[in-house]
Amino acid sequence: MASLKVADLVLLIVSLLFLMSVRADMIDDTCNRTSDTELCLSTLRSDPRSSTADAKGLAHIVLDITLKKAKDNLAQIDQLLSRTTDPALKDVLTICSQEYGNATVVILPRAIKKLESKFDAEATGNVEDSAGCAKTCEESFSDGPRPEQNRPSPFTDQNNAVLHLARLAEEIIVSFAPDGFFSKGCLEAVIRSRHDPSKVLAIFFILHGYICKLQCLLV
């Protein structure tokens, strides 16, 4: 009996080690498909859920971390907003607070819900919108309607963190989409339509993206 228990324990340990190896490979494989492998690895390895997650679960984890970071940014912005007596700074911080409020209450929770419902193209759209909130906050410090509003942003690092996490989430969602024009190609077209700086190509990708959005719902 004792030998059987030892054998069972050894089998359990080997199975766990194998599972951990498979999950580690999942993280490595997923991150190697992204544009910032180092950020991807450090982000996913910081969350214990990654050890048992599939590719879709990894995207969910990155979205959760993005939401937490956006909430942290909102708290810092609101704290500074409550202390400042500078009217121009208060105007800019109000914009940032509104943008991050929208990102944390509506946009990112919606992205998570869409991901869970397999509406991947819709999820990437929401993720991109959340990045837009961080970008708007950052640009508000240099593109204000009044000269006195323009100043160095005190939240550049925080805004960039949300931007980079949002892009990472987008790329992971694309990475686990099935191959084919109506699936992976569909998501990539939707994303390119948001990022391509060329007006001609942007128009093409936007049209392609809208068609693909409809087709993706049928996959």
From TrEMBL:
Keywords of this entry: Disulfide bond, Signal
Q: Which InterPro entries match?
A: Invertase/methylesterase_inhib (IPR035513), Pectinesterase_inhib_dom (IPR006501)
Q: Does the keyword Ubl conjugation apply?
A: no
Recall the GO molecular function terms of this protein's record.
pectinesterase inhibitor activity
Q: Does the keyword Signal apply?
A: yes
> What is the residue range of the signal peptide feature?
1-24
Which Pfam families has this protein been placed in? PMEI
The protein's name is: Pectinesterase inhibitor
Name the source organism.
Answer: Theobroma cacao (Cacao)
Gene label: LOC18613733
